[in-house]
Each structure stands twice: as structure tokens, then as C-alpha cells.
Design brief:
By secondary structure, the chain is mainly beta. The protein has one domain: Lipocalin. The chain has 2 helices and 9 strands; from the N terminus they run H-E-H-E-E-E-E-E-E-E-E. It is globular.
Length: about 160
């Protein structure tokens, strides 16, 4: 009798996967990064999706064409129609923002021009070319060439 009672207890405590109610399953979402590519091979609409966001640059050095000084970009951020940029100049960190223009050649973007508005007039301060955005291990990386065109008498805000 003792053996029979022990076997009933063991049988009632054992797990049977068929009797288990629906348990929550772990959900894994895969995020596809579609905003990559060579901007020179994209239309303006595609290029906006590719460059949209904030890009930390770090120590990429560029030379201004107007002042002849070395500048480094700290970051550049793009929205659908505006940009913000932080530049390290010999005088310190400067910032600018404004509208940008996609320059199209034969239906694809050959350059992105950054403009600032001063007293109602737009002034070109930089041109970005050779923009390529890649994805590696869910990280986006951008490379590009920048030529500054900051007027010698430009007053930073």
C-alpha cells in the first residue's frame, strides 16, 4: 500500500508538457537597418532616410576653405529638413544649424550643402560629399568628405 501511495504522489507531481497551459514565449524582434548605402547612388528621398539622425564624428579633421583653419566636427544631426552641427575651431567649440540642400545630379545626390540664415540671407557654410553609411553588428557608421566654406567675418551665435 505504501508503494502504491508513493507512486500516486510521484505521478501527480511529475510534469507533462501536454498538460501545461500556454506559457509566455520569449519574443525576439529583429530590427532591420534599411537606412544604409552610398548617398551618391540614392535619390534625395532615399538619401534623407540614410543621413537622418545624429552622427558623432570625433576627431575627423577638415580644412576650411575660407578661413584656412583646421576644424574638427564633434557631431552633425539631420532631420527631414534641418541640420545641427558642432565644430571645434581654434577659437573653441562652435555650433550652427539651419536648412540643408540635397544637390542632385542625374537623379542622385552628389552633395549635401549646409546653410545658415543670417539676417534673412542663406549662407553656405559646408558641403558634404562621398557620404556612405554602413551597418556592422547593428551599429551604423558614416563616412564623408566635408569642405567648410565659413566666411572670414562669420559671427558664431
Amino acid at each position: 500500500m505504501f508503494v502504491f501511495a508513493a507512486s500516486l504522489i510521484l505521478a501527480s507531481c511529475s510534469s507533462n508538457d501536454d498538460d501545461v497551459p500556454n506559457q509566455p514565449q520569449e519574443t525576439v524582434e529583429v530590427f532591420t537597418l534599411d537606412a544604409t548605402g552610398n548617398v551618391a547612388e540614392q535619390t534625395a528621398a532615399e538619401a534623407k532616410k540614410t543621413i537622418n539622425g545624429c552622427w558623432s564624428i570625433g576627431s575627423s579633421a577638415s580644412k576650411t576653405s575660407a578661413k584656412g583653419q583646421n576644424c574638427s566636427l564633434n557631431y552633425i544631426e539631420f532631420t527631414d529638413s534641418m541640420y545641427a552641427i558642432s565644430i571645434l575651431t581654434p577659437d573653441g567649440i562652435e555650433a550652427a544649424f539651419g536648412q540643408y540642400t540635397m544637390v542632385e545630379t542625374n537623379g542622385t545626390v552628389s552633395a549635401v550643402e549646409l546653410n545658415v540664415n543670417v539676417l534673412g540671407n542663406n549662407h553656405l557654410i559646408a558641403t558634404l560629399t562621398n557620404i556612405v553609411v554602413t551597418e556592422t553588428a547593428n551599429n551604423l557608421n558614416a563616412t564623408f568628405d566635408v569642405v567648410f566654406n565659413i566666411p572670414a567675418d562669420y559671427e558664431w551665435a
